[in-house]
């Protein structure tokens, strides 16, 4: 009889752990052991150890929580678990997944999952997602993908995945790439064998302040000036290929001249930052020439986490975002 793999199940709350109050509103209250008991198939897949880190909706998860989770996962790796599953709310799951990709250099599967419907609603998706996550966590080849999100039978890389719908059960997608695998008939089918190298290192804490400036038509430097007084870094979510209205550029240049790292991303859901197509004030060519760092194809919320982690490790923006 073959030995079952050992999996550590870490619960952070979210809809998958929710139960209703007296008027039917959902709050995260179910612990990891409760989630495990909702999937009787778990015992046939792995020897699962349940652990609780937090019981919060994911809107309340902070970078400090992500760092603490990374340390918890690393402890699991060092204790010899064959895979890790993290249950998490869906609102910020993509951020936590990418934060783990930045902080962990693990050689075992690290899988995040959750649910869109709480357990007391018809068609609750939590148990099915958890079973699929356990199957991926017991697939050694998935360890080469870095942290992944498993929802609705799909496996998504941390760098690319995003929540694209507020309430639909099939809420996650990876624009520009798609899922890198599926769970079909109880078997994990991978379409990719490795993930981009996002690892930077594991800091003791993530306590810097990096703000995102979302660019809209007619925006000036007001938000840039306000954020630059308190932040240690800025992410600019520019229009199109990485552009800002001309009135904003003076404030951005001033921030760079004061030594603030400023990274240029795009508010578009897909595509890379351009580097030399357009000219003129506020173009990508101009912004890069005054010292902004291109985020490539990285979404603004993930660029923020990358700069946050780099700063905590004493690295500069140029090292975190090489051209």
Order of strands, main sheet, comes to: 4-1-5-6-7-8-11-12
Give the proportion of residues in helices.
Answer: 25-40%
C-alpha Rg, in Å? 20 Å
Strand content: 15-25%
The biggest beta sheet, please? 8 strands, mixed
In sequence order, what are the helices and strands, one letter per element?
EEEHHEHEHEHEEEEEEEHEHEHEHH
Number of helices: 10
| SS class | alpha/beta
Task: Give the overall pLDDT as a whole number.
Answer: 95
Distance between the termini: 52 Å
Shape: elongated
Number of strands: 16
Low-confidence stretches: none
Would you give an account of this structure?
The protein is α/β, with parallel strands linked by helices and 323 residues long. Helices cover 28% and strands 22% of the residues. It has 10 helices and 16 strands. The chain has helices at residues 32-37, 42-45, 63-78, 93-103, 126-137, 222-228, 246-257, 284-289, 300-312, 317-320, and strands at residues 6-13, 18-20, 26-28, 47-56, 83-87, 110-113, 148-151, 154-157, 162-163, 172-173, 181-184, 187-190, 210-214, 233-238, 262-266, 293-294. Strands 4-1-5-6-7-8-11-12 form an 8-stranded mixed beta sheet. A 4-stranded parallel beta sheet has the order 13-14-15-16, with helices on both faces. It has a two-stranded antiparallel sheet with strand order 2-3. α4 (93-103) links the parallel β5 (83-87) and β6. The protein is elongated, with a radius of gyration of 20 Å. The chain starts with 5 loop residues before the first strand and ends with a helix.
